[in-house]
Amino acid sequence: MLSLEAHSTPTGRTRDTRRRAGGVQALCGVLRSAFSVGCYRAEMERVGIRDVAARAGVSVATVSFVLNSPGRVSAGATERVQQAIADLGYVRNEAARQLRMGRSSAIGLVMLDLRNPFFTDLALGAEEEAASNGLSVVLGHSDRDADRESTYLDLFEAQRLRGIVIAPFGDIEARLTTLLERGIPVVLVDWQSEDPRFGSIAVDNVTGGRLAGAHLLERGRRNIAFVGGPFIRQIRDRLEGAREALSEYTDGTLEVIETTALSFEEGRRVGRQLLDREPGRRPDAVFAANDLIAAGLLQVLAQDGSIRVPEDMSLVGFDDIAFASATTVPLTTVRQPSRYMGTEAVRMLIDAERPDFRPRNLLLLPELVVRRSTDSSRSV
Questions:
Q1: Mind listing the pLDDT tens digit for each residue in 21-66?
Q2: Which of 12, 40, 37, 45 has the alpha carbon at shortest distance from 25?
Q3: What is the pTM of this model?
Q4: Helices 49-56 and 60-68, interaxial angle, to 10°?
Q5: Domains 47-92 and 104-202+339-362 share a fold
Q6: What is the tally of helices (H) and strands (E) in the chain?
Q7: Which end of the chain is more exposed for a tag (fewer CB within 10 A), N or C?
Q8: CATH code, residues 47-92
Q9: CA–CA distance from 217 to each of 133, 174, 226, 370 (Å)?
């Protein structure tokens, strides 16, 4: 623990001041690395509202009116206050103001994996809806790390944000319950909540997996590989859906190839593994748990050329991210309305302020988007 306690030294006050300034600077460094927030240096005095009032030759109340209710102040006084603010570099303490009001103008957003365009699109939808309601968004990236996820929840609670939208990773029901009890509404995205106290919005992943599996089987494919992992709830559901589709065929097989991440790099790794197999041991179709895995796998196969997509191996992804239609062979995929999910989650959060509010649990139907990776007759 960093101590800022002063100690008596032969040089007295100078040594004490330097020690405290250095300690605050060190603390600033810790905060920057942890939360990317800025700190003022200890030796710089913070300009306050009284300084602005003195500079402008008006009362503190007049400065407050200029900041919060400018229509109540004359044009001349307003101009003097604004000039004093510019001259002194005054920045209002928004956190303190919101604390006094008991209401923040920001919401927290915790995303599971911002390397995946699905979550960045979801975040964009949330930010656009928040902005249209006069709210800002504080974004946290859990990166599939339960401790990191908990750290962001603690931070958002400490900042008394208006509410939190979260794509959860860890087992955090107890933590979310505490937030609700403390007056902070929570909405879960990309997660089907079974708790009626929480609002949630997700796609039916079992149905999505069934759509992908049935499409490959209808195209005459019988030796299908499911590529994905780690097996979080969403991925397990997609695999379950694929298995349900295969249960209707007596001659179909499903191989599971587990990955360590839902990433482009893992898709490339699996692509190399399939190329190393004897031709007779290769699947004739792959259902990738997301589009990033599918794109990585497709790139390796296209570069090698010995396995043609879709002639030798059909390929289906999941999400329909922006570049799914722009891959080497346009990718058949199961579409999730990511931006709409972010938009609707923020609407739920805002609705939670109504006295008659009841949390909604939306389960959206996915859509199969057929492109050339499973149908060679298509140009895209």
A1: 444 344 344 334 434 334 433 333 578 889 999 999 999 889 888 8
A2: 40
A3: 0.76
A4: 110
A5: no
A6: 13, 12
A7: N
A8: 1.10.260.40
A9: 46, 42, 13, 14
